[in-house]
Amino acid sequence: MRRTRSVRLLAVLLTAGLVLAACSGDEEPQAEPTPTEEVTPEPEPEPEFWPLTGLEVTDGDPAAHPPLIVKIDNTAAAAPQVGLSGADIVVEQMVEGGLTRLAVMFHSELPTEVGPVRSLRATDIGIAKPVGGILVASGGAHETLDRLRRAQVPLIEEGANGITRSSSRRATYNVLADLAVIADDVVAGSGTRLPYDGGRPDDYLPWGEAADLPEGEVATQLQVRYPSQNTRWEFTDDGYVNTNSHAAEGDRFVADTVLVVRVEVIDAGYTDAAGNRVPELRFEGTGEAQLFHDGQMVKGRWSKETVASALTLRSGGADLVVPAGRTWIHLLPVNNASVLHE
After folding, report:
1. Which of 57, 117, 133, 192 could form a disulfide with 154 if both were Cys (CB 3.0 to 4.6 A apart)?
2. Which residues have a Cβ under 8 Å from the Cβ of 247 and sit 6 or more positions away?
3. What distance, in Å, lies between the first and last C-alpha atoms of the chain?
């Protein structure tokens, strides 16, 4: 009996050993893991912004052409103004007789019909110089043209490609400009004595966001009163609408921001054809400012070291920004002019 148990135990052990040996022989060697190659993701391109609005570029190239600044009449006799809806910035300035004229700045869009185009003033040097803009005008007084040349501000005037007279308008309110044609000529190196060097223009205003503005006063309606002309604004869901605009219906400039800059007025040194002394607005130095945005008014001060310097703004001891968007700038005389709002 003992011998039989021993034989059985030995058989069991032998069988287990054979099974283990068989299992061990069936195993295949494990392959070494293949190292994975790390892929570095492409960095997101930095967003671009238009220098005359502060808005992000979704179509177009800010360096493709310089800003074009068109002098446009701003009296009832010149109505209807055309092309204003495509502008980035409008600068309203006083001229002789206390009336106003517009320096309308185009960059992100180039309308093919803008006008009526009128003559230059010395004030336009300080408007155009900071952004390397090219002035588009019907001409100018000899004194103004001479100062423009010395300041190296390019000029496109009547007689150049893209500036024509309309048979449906009466003189002197019949000069119109095709900005697409003018921009092509400028980039090609023709049409102006000063070549276009390329590159993105500097920002015209200190752009920011509405959330960066300090608390202001309610201002849903305002009047900007020049000595002989008023500009009225009403705040709507779209922005500030010029309720007494001379622009064609559907072609008005709707401002996200209205910026009032109080400036000194000096004598430009000559008279117009009617014998009126021509004023010049000193767009350099410093002075009071009012910024109207989103139904609010913020008081501040502006400064500009030279006519070629960028405009800076301060309020309450801190930098004041202009919310990105389209801006109407009033160069308003310190004397005999006022701003009313409610």
Report:
1. 192
2. 79, 80, 81, 82, 84, 85, 253
3. 120
Return the structure tokens found at 72: 């446009």
What type of residue sits at position 220? T
Place of tokens 């410093």: 286
289: left (phi over 0), alpha (psi -120 to 50) or beta: beta
Around Cβ 324, how many Cβ atoms within 10 Å?
19
CB neighbourhood size of 310 (10 A): 14
Tokens of 108: 């992100």
DSSP E strand stretches across 79-148: 89-94, 100-106, 134-137
CA angle 296/297/299 to nearest 5° reads: 150
- The pair of structure tokens assigned to 4 is 């039989």
How would you write the pLDDT of the chain (342 residues) with one tens digit per residue?
A: 444 444 444 344 344 443 444 444 455 556 666 666 777 777 777 899 999 999 999 999 999 999 999 999 999 999 999 999 999 999 999 999 999 999 999 999 999 999 999 999 999 999 999 999 999 999 999 999 999 999 999 999 999 999 999 999 999 999 999 999 999 999 988 777 777 778 899 999 999 999 999 999 999 999 999 999 999 999 999 999 999 999 998 999 999 999 999 999 999 988 887 788 899 999 999 999 999 999 999 999 999 999 999 999 999 999 999 999 999 999 999 999 999 999
Q: CA torsion 132→136→141→147, rounded to 10°?
A: 10
Which among 124, 298, 305 is positioned nearest to 215, based on CA atoms? 298
210, two tokens: 């509405």
Burial of residue 119 (CB within 10 Å: 0-12, 13-18, 19+) is: buried
Token pair, residue 287, equals 């002075």
Contact yes or no for 245/223 (Cβ under 8 A): no
DSSP code for 295:
T
Look up the CATH superfamily of 68-341.
YerB-like (3.50.90.10)
Q: How many CB atoms lie within 10 A of CB 280?
A: 23
